[in-house]
Amino acid sequence: MAEFLLVHGAGHGAWCWRDVVPALERLGHRAKAIDLPGHGEDTTPYQEVTLDLYADAILDALDHPMIVVGHSMGGYPITLAAERNPLNFQHLVYLCAYVPKPGLSLAQMRMEAPYQPLLPAIRMTEDRTGWTADPDMIGDVFYHDCPEGTVDFARDRLCIQATQPTSVPVETGKNYASVPRSYIRCADDRAIPPEYQVTMTEDWPSDHVFTMDCAHSPFFADPDGLARILDQIAKG
């Protein structure tokens, strides 16, 4: 039995892991999902949200060893948290997520990809310190292969994503290097190009990289398949 901490990506919340938690429990594991500051039920104003606050929230949730899964944007805060204190990180799992590159913010990494499918859907807030995804485009960008009802469920819950967490780089050292890590690529991703997911992991051991034939939201499109891969990672 393993324990998982599930960390969402941009604009999402703990709610996106709705189907994965019971899927992992059916395989004999325990899992909990958290809301990062400014997401889900956390009421921190997006203007006050920082990458540091994200990392603090992850570390606060880790009171014992767990496998930490970060989706999409969540790759940055799980990396920063592991670098700050790797003690309770049994394993890091990047789920179609950004793996921080030295000296680059997430926004800069996004522009390194061969194309930027998410950009046309981004709508900046008036104060330019946050953004939302165009509600008419979220189905195609995030959920095109998900079950009926997913778009409505998500549309009611997606929140403003603060820009600060995606504007600063994460520097890593021996703490981060001490934590085992795996990556789950999504071959039909329309938010982070699959080609760029390959680029980010091209020098990783092949047995630490997995591929799902789905888009950017495998927690809705194939929660059981995702749970099976996480189970495989947990078993080493």
Automatic annotation (TrEMBL):
GO molecular function, one term: methyl jasmonate esterase activity
Keyword set includes Coiled coil: no
Keywords assigned by UniProt, alphabetized: Hydrolase
Pfam families documented for this protein: Abhydrolase_6
Domain AB hydrolase-1: 4-228
Keyword Manganese among UniProt keywords: no
Listed PANTHER family: AB HYDROLASE-1 DOMAIN-CONTAINING PROTEIN, METHYLESTERASE FAMILY MEMBER
Protein's recorded name: Alpha/beta fold hydrolase
Source organism: Thalassovita mangrovi
